[in-house]
Structure formats: C-alpha cells, structure tokens
Design goal:
about 30% strand; 6 strands; alpha+beta; two-stranded antiparallel ribbon
Length: about 110
C-alpha cells in the first residue's frame, strides 16, 4: 500500500511544470473562488482573494506555499503538492462564488 501511495505522489509531482520554493511568510490557499463551477481565483490565509492568474504569479514568486504550477493547453493553474493528506488538497477546500468575493481584490 505504501508503494502505491509513493507511485501516486510521484505521478502527481511529475504533472507539475514548476514547484516554486515558498518564502517564510508565504500564505496558504484556504478557499477557491468559483464562477459557474470553474475556479477563477483563490482565497488566501490573510483573507484576501486573488485571481487565478495572480495566484500563479504569487506562487512563482514564493508568496503561496504548498502548491505547484501546472498547465492545461495555454492556461497555467495551481495544484496542491502531494503530501498524503487529502484535507488540504485544493479540490477539498471550501468554495465561494465570485459574486461573494471582493471583486476588487481579484486582480
């Protein structure tokens, strides 16, 4: 069983284009901003919300921890780093609709 988990983690890591090193004061993603079921942004541990694109740039700069950069076609997005814990995977985080998010902070 441990070997299966290791293979799954290895496959997940290989799907990432980049794994930025997080700064000591990096924020966590605590929620997903969604519109029509699609992720459009991220809610951070300091209460701010950022667009998906800004979240990717912040992660590349080490400002968001626990994530890697992946892409689908020409769009980059964030994925949780595999750590064996399901509860902190982005897909398991609470969602807020874009209408509830502070749209001015979605830059």
């Amino acid at each position: 069983m441990k070997e299966e988990k290791s293979i799954g983690s290895e496959l997940a890591m290989n799907a990432l284009d980049d794994i930025p090193e997080a700064k000591s004061d990096a924020k966590d993603i605590v929620g997903l901003v969604k519109s029509s079921g699609r992720i459009t942004g991220y809610q951070l541990s300091d209460g701010t919300t950022v667009s998906k694109e800004s979240g990717v740039e912040m992660a590349k700069n080490g400002e968001i921890k626990g994530v890697g950069i992946a892409h689908r076609k020409d769009s980059e997005y964030l994925k949780s780093l595999p750590d064996g814990e399901e509860g902190n995977n982005l897909g398991n985080l609470p969602s807020i609709s874009q209408g509830c998010a502070d749209t001015e902070s979605l830059s």
